[in-house]
Design goal:
2 domains, 73% helix
């Protein structure tokens, strides 16, 4: 491949990567994503890029979940919603203090637990946080 062809191909790849890295506009979302995010439509273009990326990624992930995975996600959301602001902050700080490997190990452990076991583990963590 000649240098000019290589340069052109590299330029196209970089341009594609830059577009992919940008947060999507409302019209760039898939119909499924728009349906899931419809309550954000009016303020979408004014939202910070990081929020738009996060919401678009979450909507994409949700659309690929099985009904069972969605049910589990709803259950986890309700459990976290029922926590006090201090408890949520304690969990957030603990999570942020973990390195990526620790987070991955925790994810694997939690995936292998029943909902009841996860709730018991959460209760134990919160009790330990309260003692510290």
């Amino acid at each position: 491949m000649r240098a000019s062809q290589l340069f052109f191909a590299l330029t196209l790849l970089l341009a594609h990567a830059a577009v992919q890295a940008q947060a999507p506009s409302w019209n760039q979302l898939s119909p499924d994503q728009q349906q899931l995010l419809r309550r954000h439509e009016q303020q979408w273009d004014g939202m910070p890029e990081s929020d738009r990326k996060r919401l678009a990624n979450n909507a994409q992930r949700w659309s690929t979940m099985t009904p069972n995975e969605r049910q589990q996600a709803r259950r986890r959301y309700r459990a976290l919603k029922d926590l006090s602001a201090d408890q949520r902050q304690a969990l957030r700080q603990r999570w942020q203090g973990m390195d990526p490997e620790q987070r991955q190990r925790l994810r694997r452990r939690l995936q292998n637990m029943t909902p009841e076991q996860r709730q018991q583990a959460l209760t134990r963590v919160l009790e330990r946080q309260g003692r510290n």
